[in-house]
Write a structure and sequence with these properties.
It contains 14 helices and 16 strands. Helix 4 runs antiparallel to helix 5 and helix 11 packs across helix 13. Helix 11 links the parallel strand 14 and strand 15. It has 380 residues and is an alpha/beta fold. It has an eight-stranded mixed beta sheet with strand order 3-4-2-1-7-8-9-10, with helices on both faces. Strands 13-12-11-14-15-16 form a six-stranded parallel beta sheet, sandwiched between helices. It has two domains: 189 residues, Glycogen Phosphorylase B (Rossmann fold, 3-Layer(aba) Sandwich); 170 residues, Glycogen Phosphorylase B (Rossmann fold, 3-Layer(aba) Sandwich), CATH 3.40.50. The radius of gyration is 21 Å and the shape is globular.
């Protein structure tokens, strides 16, 4: 099958959406499918055998790491030359609108996927009054598709409740070979803790942006004697966070990737994830695969992954800081229980490899390209 993918973000940017797309494209190409990626220009022309068509753009004012790539007629010419069997738009916002447009003009089956919970993001940028308008725009775009995929059952239900039709679940995936408990390293632990490897080590991995609510980790850090915090990643909120955590034992690590990132997960005592806006939280699965116990907010797609007291801990975000503090203290104090949590987390992650995730997507592709078949948009 020939698949044209339109995405608002791709390499060299690093985030959960790009990680999912990288693995998906790799497995699609390996299985014999052909992929053409339309993305903001990042200097790439090819990835894992797939052609990458870079569209020039400009930085988003509130989020300079993201580029807005405006549709242009040359996209249509590239599509005509590629002759796709199906168009997949990922988080359609600007460039994705071109995918929606050309699917109509060229009568190509369209599938869309929802990865970033933008309506909730608005609250963190002082634009909450636009939430209703944004839902209407999302509904107008997504309802052009024959199928809309979400990465958690919570998002399937929320999109359906807001009038988005033909919604189904695209299962989670994680690289269980890369992210593994055996990658734990005393050297990495010393690095993350700034040469205090015997201290309790808390870890956060992800974008340093307002909607991630990283500030909520500070009371946890302060409540645990001698604890250290490592923040892995970067983003537009970094300077504000550096000021906020200025007098705490917090290390801003910057980006890590590959085996270094896997080692960071495996070497920490607890992965703290306070965000309430996650559609999935891919880094949670990576932490669990690496055997790093998770303390996360009971919200969104997180509850699809973490079972409280079984393979991690969940806290109620509406009860202030106490729930997160108590969960983290329990995790660090109960050594035997922590070891059971580690083992269960790894077992859960082992159920979700990228190959199985991509095979499920291929079944969706086949069904959407043959609309007479049943089962599209059945929900969960």
């Amino acid at each position: 099958m020939r698949i044209a993918v339109f995405t608002e973000t791709f390499l060299p940017k690093v985030d959960g959406i790009v990680t999912r797309l990288r693995h998906t494209i790799d497995h699609l190409q390996r299985s014999g499918d052909q992929v053409l990626v339309f993305a903001p220009d990042g200097g790439l022309t090819e990835y894992k055998g797939a052609q990458v068509y870079g569209v020039s753009g400009f930085p988003l004012p509130l989020y300079p790491e993201l580029k807005l790539a405006l549709p242009r007629p040359a996209i249509g010419y590239a599509l005509e030359e590629f002759r796709p069997d199906l168009i997949h738009v990922v988080n359609p916002a600007v460039l994705g609108l071109a995918g929606i447009f050309y699917s109509k003009v060229m009568q190509i089956p369209l599938i869309a996927s929802y990865h970033t919970h933008l309506p909730q993001y608005l609250q963190h940028y002082g634009l909450g009054m636009l939430e209703g308008v944004l839902w209407e725009l999302l509904k107008a775009g997504h309802n052009q598709a024959r199928l809309n995929l979400c990465t958690s059952s919570a998002m399937v239900q929320e999109l359906s409740a807001h009038g988005i039709e033909r919604v189904d679940l695209w299962q989670r995936g994680v690289d269980t070979e890369l992210f593994h408990p055996e990658r734990a390293s005393w050297e990495m632990r010393s690095h993350l803790s700034q040469q205090h490897p015997d201290s309790p080590l808390l870890l956060y991995v992800g974008r340093l942006s307002a909607e991630k609510e990283i500030e909520r980790i500070k009371p946890i850090l302060e409540a645990i004697p001698n604890a250290r915090l490592a923040l892995v990643g970067d983003g537009p909120h970094r300077l504000a966070l550096e000021k906020y955590f200025e007098k705490t034992p917090t290390y801003f690590v910057g980006y890590l990737a590959g085996q270094e990132l896997a080692s960071a997960f495996a070497s920490a005592d607890a992965f703290i994830f306070p965000s309430r806006t996650e559609t999935l939280g891919l880094v949670l699965l990576e932490a669990m695969a690496a055997g790093c116990p998770v303390v996360a907010c009971r919200s969104g797609g997180i509850t699809d992954i973490v079972t409280d007291g079984v393979n991690g801990y969940l806290f109620d975000p509406n009860l202030g800081d106490r729930g997160a503090i108590t969960a983290t203290q329990r995790l660090l104090e109960q050594r035997e229980e922590r070891e059971i949590i580690r083992q269960n987390a790894r077992k859960e992650a082992e159920r979700w490899g990228w190959a199985a995730c991509t095979r499920q997507l291929q079944r969706y592709y086949m069904t959407v390209s043959r609309p007479h078949e049943q089962g599209v948009g059945s929900g969960v």
